[in-house]
Amino acid sequence: MMAYWLSFTLLTFCQPMQPTSTFSIVAFDPKTGDLGVAVASKFLAVGSVVPYAKAGVGAIATQSFANTTFGPKGLELLRKGLTPSQVLKQLLASDKDRELRQVGIVDAKGRAAAFTGKKCLPWAGHIVGKGFAVQGNILAGEQVVKAMAKAFQETQGELAERLMAALEAGEQAGGDARGKQSAAILVVRKGAGYGGFDDRYIDLRVDDHPEPVKELRRILTIKLAWAQLFEASKWRQKGNIKKAAEILKAAVLRYPDQAVLHYDLACYLALLGEKEDALKALERALQLDAGLKELAKKDDDLKPLRSDPRFEKLVR
User: Fold this and answer.
1) What's the 3-state SS for 115-151?
2) pTM of the prediction?
3) Strand order through the sheet with 112-116
4) 297: exposed, middle or buried (C-beta count within 10 Å: 0-12, 13-18, 19+)?
5) What's the rounded Cα separation, in Å, for the pair 87 and 93?
6) Mind spelling out the 3-state secondary structure of the chain?
7) Are 39 and 66 in contact (CB under 8 A)?
8) How many CA within 13 A on the CB side of residue 236?
9) CB-based burial of residue 247 (10 Å sphere; 0-12 exposed, 13-18 middle, 19+ buried)?
10) How far apart are CA 277 and CA 270, in angstroms?
11) pLDDT tens per residue, the chain (316 residues)?
């Protein structure tokens, strides 16, 4: 009897490439210049295959027996000044299996294009609109891409929130006909990555989960709240504490269970002389994380509260 590992290896090499059946959206935000891709699929770690984006250049989704060279090659062609339609034409011309492919492209001018090969597994299709393209294959039906396009166009907020709304609408409309497994969102903004060293403003993946779109929404909410925390810190460094506090109030509403958000809000409010609200924010922070008590005792930002007996009671 052939060894298990050998039979498995031979079977793997004899099988055709697995289709990256997904529903995805590529889009551009003219207000911020953000570019992004959001994708979901009954496929392990779809975020490692489909999304590509570069700040100031464009965003690409490559799926359905995905040709992953389309990502870097397509971005380079966009960088050289080709339109999304021209890029598609050039990429497909050199691909003998192009009728198996599905691609969506948007550039930093908001121009978009998409392609669905004739051999993509049904239901497969796409919609191209102003500043976006939605596409999918092995879907429950055309209603999936229609719902995605509608949600994207009608949702307010920054690009990541609009992309997320499109994914959620696609899933609610039936999504991938085979079920759920993974989801991802990639949004690029010049210098918005960690430490300002790259442009990956949001780069989140749920690789294997029973409810990947819901889980992606959860971690995106955390990410956006932390982005607000860092933005508030920048305003504080500029000396505009009032603006910093306004941003943190919004962050707390977005993600009310994060102790650090309440703590920093308490600091800013204390500096602004808003003692009552500062104490309330500090109390909530310490309820969520008692470990912050030692920091609060020494934090210069909280000096305006130290003469109040309620402060002493909170940090005991």
Assistant:
1) EECCCCCCCCEEEEECCEEEEECCECCCHHHHHHHHH
2) 0.89
3) 51-54, 58-63, 102-107, 112-116
4) middle
5) 10
6) CCCHHHHHHHHHHHCCCCCCCEEEEEEECCCCCCEEEEEEECCCCHHHCCEEEECCCEEEEEECCCCCCHHHHHHHHHHCCCCHHHHHHHHHHCCCCHHHCEEEEEECCCCEEEEECCCCCCCCEEEEECCEEEEECCECCCHHHHHHHHHHHHCCCCHHHHHHHHHHHHHHCCCECCCCCEEEEEEECCCCCHHHCCCEEEEEEECCCCCHHHHHHHHHHHHHHHHHHHHHHHHHHCCCHHHHHHHHHHHHHHCCCCHHHHHHHHHHHHHCCCHHHHHHHHHHHHHHCHHHHHHHHHCHHHHHHCCCHHHHHHHC
7) no
8) 19
9) buried
10) 8
11) 333 233 333 333 334 566 666 999 999 999 999 999 999 999 999 999 999 999 999 999 999 999 999 999 999 999 999 999 999 999 999 999 999 999 999 999 999 999 999 999 999 999 999 999 999 999 999 999 999 999 999 999 999 999 999 999 999 999 988 899 999 999 999 999 988 899 999 999 999 999 999 999 999 999 999 999 999 999 999 999 999 999 999 999 999 999 999 999 999 999 999 999 999 999 999 999 999 999 999 999 999 999 999 999 999 9
Q: Facing residues of 23 across strands?
A: 40, 136
Distance of CA 188 to the CA centre of its chain: 9
Residues belonging to the chain: 316
